[in-house]
Amino acid sequence: MRRFFQAHRDEDHSQIQYLTAKCTRLAHDKAVLDREFLVSKDRERKLQNDLEAATARLLHQEQLNMQLRMKQDQLFSKIHQQQDLVDMLQQRFVLLVEESFRDAELLRQVSTELLCLQSSEVKLEGLVEELHAEAQHRAVVAESLQTELHAEAQHRAVLTESLQAELSSKSVELEELQENNTTLREELQDLRSAHEKEVRELQQENQRSLGKLQETAEQCEWLCQQQRYWVCCVKRFKHCLMEEREALLRQVSTLEKKAEKLMKTEHDEGHTQSVLCPLKETSCCDSISSWEADSVVDLESQAGSPINGHQKPP
Prior knowledge:
Layout lengths: L1 H115 L4 H145 L4 H34 L11
Helix pairs in contact: 1-2, 2-3
């Protein structure tokens, strides 16, 4: 009997230790999954911040591109104005050249008239000198205007070259900015796709973790129910054993009293009594062994199949 109880007690103790260790391991796994979930949340927040920063940079780059386009339009308008001014100066130069040609023709006409009027040379000498002075004055004015026009043309040419160089540099800068803008757009698209992929992976991982947690919780609940059921069965079995033990003790005490009475009253039948006592002891042992077998069969019929540590819930 003691070996039977000791074996069941050791088995129950081992089952309790196994269930406790399994519950501790499940709590540790749950804590690890919670930490992984928090880390995934932090990574998602960081990716969201990077996406917002890239979007802000892209908007700033687009604003810079718009400002550069406006400056380019202003430079084009200035260049057109300078070109119109150069055309107007060229037209003025052509008019001055035509006037000088007309003055030269007039001078030639006057010289021919002087040749025709040699007889009146004394009278017309003053007029010739005046005309000659006026012609020289007009020639000087034409030369000064020509030099001014040439200087103005050179200045306009230098200014046009500088504006053209500035326009070319701005065009190169605009191309670089456009290339940077395209690269930033590609990087932003890559970041968005990577972010969406990582979010999907995190969601799938969270779903798998939740499924594992639910399964482990169901297993833990089933194991706890089995443990409570076995504890109740052991307590009930112990109580039955105590009651049976008390009944056997009472029966033994009554048998001992009867035996003493028989020994006192029947001294003559000592040999017969010595033969009957072993028969009673064997019958008592047989009753105890049959009772143990019946109690074990009853316990197994109540508890069903024995608990397996690796058995899964239905």
